[in-house]
Amino acid sequence: MTTVIRQDDIIASVADALQFISYYHPKDFIDGVHQAYQREESKAAKDAMAQILINSRMCAQGKRPICQDTGIVTAFVNVGMECKIEGDMSFDDIINEGVRRAYQHPDNVLRASILADPDGARKNTGDNTPAVIHYKIVPGDKVEVHVAAKGGGSEAKSKFAMLNPSDSVVDWVLKMVPQMGAGWCPPGMLGIGIGGTAEKAMLLAKEALLDPIDIQDLQARGASNRAEELRLELYDKVNALGIGAQGLGGLTTVLDIKIKDYPSHAANKAIAIIPNCAATRHAHFVLDGSGPALQTPPSLDDWPEVSWDVGDSVRRVNLNEVTKDDLLEWQPGETILLSGKLLTGRDAAHKRLVDMIAKGEPMPVDFTDRFIYYVGPVDPVREEVVGPAGPTTATRMDKFTRTVLESTGLIGMVGKAERGPSGIEAIRDNKAVYLMAVGGAAYLVSKAITNAKVLAFEDLGMEAIYEFDVKDMPVTVAVDTKGEAVHETGPKIWQAKIEERVVEVK
Questions:
Q1: What tens digit of pLDDT does each residue of 75-84 get?
Q2: pLDDT tens-digit profile of 195-234?
Q3: Which fold has domain 155-286?
Q4: Exposed, middle or buried: residue 121 (CB in 10 Å: 0-12, 13-18, 19+)?
Q5: What ranges do the domains of the chain cover?
Q6: Hey, is 248 helix, strand or coil?
Q7: Among 251, 254, 216, 221, which residue's Cα sits nearest to residue 235?
Q8: pLDDT, tens only, 158-180
Q9: Distance CA 471, CA 341 (A)
Q10: Tally of CB atoms within 10 A around 388
């Protein structure tokens, strides 16, 4: 007997799932981060995980996005051969209508991040469509859907290679993970796809990330196949790299390693890594013809009670009065609370500024002795002055950093993860500083923002230059005026500590 699935039920189910995952972490992820938090010995990494856990609970309570980057939507759809889809839209259009409704929901507006004509005009589609959709036709009388919202920072760190059949998967992964830096916002998961063809390996890696965190169960029962052996080996060896939460150095870099494989041509061994960040977002539902399949809200009891106390010794900085001389005292790894007026700007704004500098045009904003925050906030709702406003990946601004520092009077930057060599050199040469905010704690950060207004480039939308009034916004000194970078020193220190323990155990 054929099961009739109404297109409106698919649309409603997709929209509900995407709203749900914007503010609810999966319980397995919360449990994984909390376990890592409890055993972490690096203060910086432990503080970062505390902020992630606190932010997660706040989002569950306030029903607002975990991260300001609400992601590009990927859908995996299994259509039963005994199903009939009732409606007048294509299946792609049905999924995309669900995405559109989710991202434009008036009670929880999600950021539109999808740009058409990616190597040309890069014009925002306005509603986060289209999604990336994968289909399978399978036996059965139901439609099964997995949806995920994948942030650009973690997606950008994906890796792929065509290994020789005799090459070591473990060696390649351990070479790639340090190259990924911290822009994927660890701790999270690594999805690894092995085999098939180039595109199949990438698809396997993405699909692997849909599975729940269960590495502790696997450790307890032991491996039963090659993929599970690899999971166990890589879990230990990747964490032994000492990269840690947010790349600050620590015991936990990955919460789990997920691996899927597929038969391969005799001459090839395709391999892909796709990381999932601290804003892990995915949901699953099944449609059986009885109506929409809606998500069940978790209990707030699932979230641990975690406090984050910076202590009385923390440095408090008034951004309205800070000078270049003040920056000389700031120490790498030091926690700072920022208050005062903070400018914002990311890729598109920096590109426009550099173009204006090249043409000798006046700056639209006075940057003298100011700090700029690399962020593209979510639109506010209700009483909010700004929506979730976590940092974006700072390395994307490296190509602009020297020009901006030397031509505008800017003295400091705030962003996510590490800076590259050219960025660090520009910071050192200009005796500026780079401060790191925690990726995956966007709602928590937004609570430190008391006012927001657009100063320039309003046509760029979320990439416009804003001025935020902030109160006690927590950041870490990631690159000081001498060019010392905690994302270089921290992992080295913790890798050495972990190696010492392994030697002692042996």
A1: 999 999 999 9
A2: 999 999 999 999 999 999 999 999 999 999 999 999 999 9
A3: 60s Ribosomal Protein L30; Chain: A; (3.30.1330)
A4: exposed
A5: 1-25+66-150, 155-286, 315-490
A6: coil
A7: 254
A8: 999 999 999 999 999 999 999 99
A9: 9
A10: 33
